[in-house]
Amino acid sequence: MTDTTPAGFASLGLPFSILRTLEELGYEAPSPIQAAGIPPLLAGQDVLGMAQTGTGKTAAFALPLLARTQADFKTPQVLVLAPTRELAQQVAEAIKTYSRYMNDINVTAIYGGTDYGTQLRELKRGPQWVVGTPGRVMDHLRRGSLNLADIKAVVLDEADEMLRMGFIDDVNWILEHTPRTRQVALFSATMPKEIQRVAETHLKDPVQVKIQNKTTTNSNISQRYWFVTSAHKNDALLRIAEVEDFDAMMVFVRTKQATEEVADFMQQHGFRCAPLNGDIPQQLREKAVEKLKAGRLDIIVATDVAARGLDVERISHVINYDIPQDTESYVHRIGRTGRAGREGAAIAFVRGREKRMLRDIERATRQQIEEMQLPTAKDVNAKRKSRFQQRILEAISPEKNSVYREMVESLQQEHEVDPLELAAALASLIQGDKPLFLDENEDLRARREPRETREPRDRNERAPRQSREPRKAAPDARAKPLKGKPDVEMQRYWVGVGYDHGLKPGNLVGAIANEADLESAFIGHIEIFEQYSVVDLPDGMPEPAMAVLRKARVCGQALGIRPYRSELALESSSAAPRRNDNRRTDNRRGDAPRRDGRRQDGPPRSSRPPRKGNASQG
């Protein structure tokens, strides 16, 4: 390890093993939430943090709690509750990354939509960290496969989102099953009264941390993104580099190894490219930067730490080959372009599970990042053709080429070769064995995952409001289009849970979002009747997801989801929704369920253990 460990993190009292990881990740200094949150958590105090997602709060709680984790004890010591499967996966991966140099630290993620067998096997291994969604954590607690007796700390991540999805009662129930001596860290972007009530009930003299997000980006920088799988990132980078008109390009990757691999790939395809990482001697790094400034290099592939302090005005494009883990790093990276009043361009490669980070960046920077169309093979070939022809034109020089002209004339006369055929043969010699053009039948966009081709609607956008007036007739079988997303075809489904079972829209949204791994933005119109409900979902839902939803439970009842037909309403005990405005809510408001209105993983009400205290009603 070099002596370039960020002094800011070192001064916080974190152990060497964590500081080593932070250096490799390119963390230069703690973000405001990290600087304010790490010391009290490291000291064992409770923390009430108010900060937007993307401000680095995952590291704010993960780093100090990892430092306090005892690797010798193979029992759960830290429990992290997250509102969605996607966030649980993201947090678990981050913790694994931060603990890479800590021996014998195991992290397990438990959430709906996956089989219990795998999760049961992982829990039997004795992980020190468990990250999960409330419903699945409750399931494992009832099964006896998860024991919280040795829990030292509980983290409530995005508590306001858990409230919106109807999980706040579940959170209270879980907290009541943890030791009273445990440490609690609660993070929320907003602080509604229900979240304040949770804090008052379960936190002891918490240190309050409130971070105002003032992150902004240069208006001279155009920002775009492309959804791409890891296997296609090199091809995507190559196409962008070939088609975009750039002066110099900065490519940011996450690891030192990636700098070498990506740079080698671009060199093989004709670009003057060099890696920049912490293992390269300082003298060679300085030479690479000088070459970039002088125009003798086209592209630098770098990690955050290696690019520290780099300022080259001719950088016109910044590519986030690996999207950063916090918004501050994103803003810092793209700030390498658009210098001195020049126009700049920033492009981010975003995998499916990183879509959440993209939305967090948009909210933090208050700027929309547009989806870009990746250049097609036809676009690349047109550029290659133009460049090749330009090379030939620039090579025309009667004085310099006089010797070659005589040779060509001699060949043409002796062998009676057509001049065009002779010129084509010479062009082929220039190109060599490498094909000049791409196969235009091979298009990277055609290989994208279906779920990655759809841009999710901003989850803050409210869905069409449901009528609060009761209807005597069964609902129309036609699904309503999503507001602002007419290109997403919807289908109406019947579910076998209604008002009489204690169902609220937030329960149904949470069940479908977690069990089917479907973003809540794509859950459309919901209408609740006494014995059943109807919900609009994207047409063509995959059968594996539907199979999971059919078995999922809400309010102690199996969803039994199936395509809606009017006969299903007639078969139900009542086709008229109950008139009760206090219980009927818009599904985007995500009101928390009443005590007897549990989410999908809950048991029948009669089997619910009694609660202590005053649970939130959301």
From TrEMBL:
Pfam families: DbpA, DEAD, DeaD_dimer, Helicase_C. The keyword Cytoplasm applies. Its EC number is 3.6.4.13. InterPro entries: CsdA_RRM, DbpA/CsdA_RNA-bd_dom, DEAD/DEAH_box_helicase_dom, DEAD/DEAH_RhlB, DEAD_box_RNA_helicases, DeaD_dimer, DEAD_helicase_DeaD, Helicase_ATP-bd. Residues 443-485, 578-602 have a biased composition (Basic and acidic residues). One of its GO terms (molecular function) is helicase activity. Belongs to the DEAD box helicase family. DeaD/CsdA subfamily. Residues 440-485, 570-618 are annotated as: Disordered. Residues 7-35 form the DEAD-box RNA helicase Q domain. This is ATP-dependent RNA helicase DeaD. DEAD-box RNA helicase involved in various cellular processes at low temperature, including ribosome biogenesis, mRNA degradation and translation initiation. The lineage of its organism: Bacteria, Pseudomonadati, Pseudomonadota, Gammaproteobacteria, Oceanospirillales. It comes from the Bacteria. Keywords: ATP-binding, Cytoplasm, Helicase, Hydrolase, Nucleotide-binding, RNA-binding, Stress response. It catalyses: ATP + H2O = ADP + phosphate + H(+). The keyword Repeat does not apply.
